[in-house]
Amino acid sequence: MPRVCVFDVNETLLDLAALDPHFKRLFGDAAVRGEWFGQMIQSALVSTVTGNYSDFGAIGGAALQMTAERHGVELSEEDRQSVLTTVPKLPPHPDSREGLERLRNAGFRLATLTNSTQRVAESQMESSGLGEFFEQVLSADEVRRLKPAPEPYRMAAEKLGVGVADIRLVAAHAWDVAGALGAGCAAAFVARPGKVPDPLVGLPDVVGADLAEVADGIIEAEG
At 207, which helix (H) or strand (E)? Predict the structure, then answer.
């Protein structure tokens, strides 16, 4: 059974709600943050499917421009940077540390796997204070294929010195869970508010409302 847990970062471990004041100021509605991130994921999927690679930071900037055009808002470079430079400094969800502590104390190896660039990934771990839990901080940018393509999950297994079937991807995104399962990994779904599993993929064997509940489920599932 997998004893290596590999964590998605944005929304799974870190709270994008820290961006809400910027979207409230720029768009008059903090909820536009969700629209922007959804556009970012869509653009990342298009990039991956078409083979026209751009790193996740560039995709985030393009998605912000598309969102602004959709709302008829003209953003200055300072406006753009107020959003994009906050991403490396996102705070953790309140339950993230507790969940990670439970898994570490139970003897699991822990790593992260994010679509963000290596620089952003490392900055996020340092800023959030969660870096101490992870033996490796991994970026899909290394293989120039973004999750949910299979290459990032395979790369994570190789870097960690285990088989793909020996890692469990933990994520709050149905598309990330689908990618991990498709690549041969185990998975766990963190059902954060507004996040639901994809009925076409099916549930992984571990589902929880927050990371602490998911950690307990993983420990129980893997004995």
Answer: strand 206-208
The fraction of the chain above a pLDDT of 70, given in percent, is 99
Is 178 in contact with 171 (CB distance < 8 Å)?
no
pTM given for the model: 0.95
Containing structural domain, residue 63: 16-88
| Residues 11 and 25 both lie in one domain | no
Short-list 48, 44, 39, 84, CA closest to 66? 39
Whether the Cβ atoms of residue 60 and residue 68 lie closer than 8 Å to each other = no
Share of the chain above pLDDT 90, in %: 97
Return the pLDDT at 71.
97
Q: For residues 135 and 223, what is the distance between their CA atoms, to the nearest angstrom?
A: 22
Task: Look at residue 1 and tell me whether its pLDDT is greater than 60.
Answer: no
Give the span between the Cα atoms of 214 and 133, in whole angstroms: 16
Q: Whose CA is closest to 196, among 174, 211, 215, 217?
A: 174
11 with 110, same domain: the answer is: yes
